Amino acid sequence: MDSGGPTPEPHPEPLSEQATEPAAGEEHDDEHADGHDGEHVSVGLALSAGGAAADAWHAGVVNALHDMVGWDARSADLILGTSAGSIVGLCLRAGIAPADLYAARLGAPLSDEGRALFDRVTTPYSEDRRERDWTDLRPQSPTLVAAALWPPWQTRPLHALTGLLPAGARASDALRQRMAELHPEPWPQAPFWATAVRLSDGRRVVFGRDDLPATAAQAVQASCAVPARFEPVAVAGQRYIDGGLHSYTNADLLGPPAFDLVVVSSAMSGAADWPKVAGAVSQALRKAGAAAAAGLGDSRSGRGDGSHDGSPEGARQRAWWAQSLDLAWDDARSVRAARRQWVDDKLRSELDGLRRLGTTVLVAEPDADTVELADMGSNAENPGDDRPAATAPRGRDRGPAWRAALAEAADRTVRGLLAEHRNRRASELLRRAAG
Predict the structure, then answer these.
(1) Helix or strand or coil: residue 182?
(2) How far apart are CA 293 and CA 102, in angstroms?
(3) Residues 155-190 as b or e (16 or more Cβ within 10 Å = b)
(4) How many CB atoms lie within 10 A of CB 24?
(5) How does DSSP classify residue 404?
(6) CA-based angle 365:83:232, to the nearest 5?
(7) Cα 149 vs. chain centroid, distance in angstroms?
């Protein structure tokens, strides 16, 4: 789930380069990169939202980190998860090894330990649709609309739209039950945070940090409650929805207190190339308008959809809309690019704050060659099922070939990042953290 509108600005240098490159005039001593000389190196891990894509991406990221530098994501001093990232985060806190998360995405054999953990989950996954009447189609939170539009110089358009939408009709009780089976204890002993948004006013909340009486399974359920799809999750008299409405990454929560290193696995940021897509959309609309004005395309047939008569003017209007949709929104590419640009902008702002604290940051995100793979999903293989695979590690999977390809792409991306000279500080910190 995203929030706010995209800012159509060219994407600067890759975030991983920005976050780990020394400032002008600074030199990093690799031998003493962390400045603690034998002391504990603290690592915070942020796992982004992004549905099935994020689930596969995170599995590849944590696997490569372990293979390349020996750092096990289960040992992170803090795991912060948003939406699908909270599922993967709780899997790690339940003890599932990075190699087993990766193997599950590839359809490869699991270790005995991993199989035993996955076998804890016995509840079938389901998204039961509740019966609704016309009263259920009312705006789900008028108070959220008011809070999002005031003050007028700080409006949050997507929050306002979310408040106007009816509540989702799908139940996520099965997700909560499955996560409770995987992690039976109320909360992990090691720090684990899951973000959500309070439906009444749009404020971000952090389960595990804030004083909220929820189990880890409830926190994950709330963090994954995609607006207008799933029912809001009630905890102690308040309703909560997907934490991605505030930010897909929420990486600003990892400082202060500052960590020596913050690793951000972000499936939905990267090379959005929104300016190019926006230009293509504008050009497509102009072409469609010109075609309609010239009486081309469907205007010659005079076929109608019932909304206009059979006059030439009505046919031209139908042609304009048909060609506009075909050309401008083909495969929803422009929508996805706009979303990715917004996620980029939000993440860059969060990283700026971390860098000001002197925190080294490593960001694993799709590059220009991987963005299309991450965005395409596998709707052609199994339409309408976009749940994160970690919710059903032993059951029916959505688009296994696509998931495997994306996990492998994430694995390759991280191996490349850690081999780059600009990321030598992050690599050294991870090795030290691994002991």
Answers:
(1) helix
(2) 54
(3) ebebbbebbbeebbbebbebbbbbbbebbeeebbee
(4) 5
(5) H
(6) 155
(7) 25
Q: Structure tokens of 49?
A: 């939202």
What's the length of the chain?
435
d(C-alpha 411, C-alpha 106), whole Å:
12
As a whole number of angstroms, the longest Cα–Cα distance in the chain is 81
**Strand ranges, E, within 162-304:** 192-198, 204-207, 233-235, 238-242, 261-265
Of 224 and 8, the structure prediction assigns the larger pLDDT to: 224
Query: In the structure encoding, which two tokens stand for residue 394, read together?
Result: 């032993």
Structure tokens given for 310: 């059979």
Omega prior to 388 cis, within 30 of 0: no
Q: How much is the pLDDT for 253?
A: 97
Beta strand 360-364 with 261-265 is parallel
**CB-based contact 53:268 (threshold 8 Å):** yes
Report in angstroms the alpha-carbon separations of 133 from 130, 137, 169, 192: 10, 7, 11, 39
* Angle of helix 51-69 versus helix 84-93 axis, rounded to 10: 40
- Enumerate residues 6+ apart whose C-beta is below 8 A from 417: 16, 362, 364, 423
Q: Please give the Cα distance from 248 to 411 (Å, whole number).
A: 21
Q: Measure the CA dihedral 352/48/329/163, to 10°.
A: -90
In the numeric block, the tokens 């860059």 are attached to: 348
List pLDDT tens digits, range 147-188: 999 998 889 998 999 999 999 999 999 999 999 999 999 999
Instruction: Kindly state the tokens that stand for 384.
Output: 């309408």
The residues near 207 (Cβ < 8 Å, ≥ 6 apart) are: 193, 194, 195, 196, 214, 216, 218, 219, 222, 223
**85, 46 Cβ separation under 8 angstroms:** yes
The C-alpha atoms of residue 307 and residue 187 are separated, in whole angstroms, by 56
- State both tokens at 148: 């999002």
For 90-137, how does the pLDDT look when each residue is reduced to its tens digit (9 = 90+)?
A: 999 999 999 999 999 999 999 999 999 999 999 999 998 887 776 778
Instruction: Please report which confidence band the pLDDT of residue 15 belongs to, taking 50, 70 and 90 as the band edges.
Output: very low
d(CA 144, CA 124) in angstroms, rounded, equals 34
Q: Give 279's pLDDT tier (boundaries 50, 70, 90).
A: low
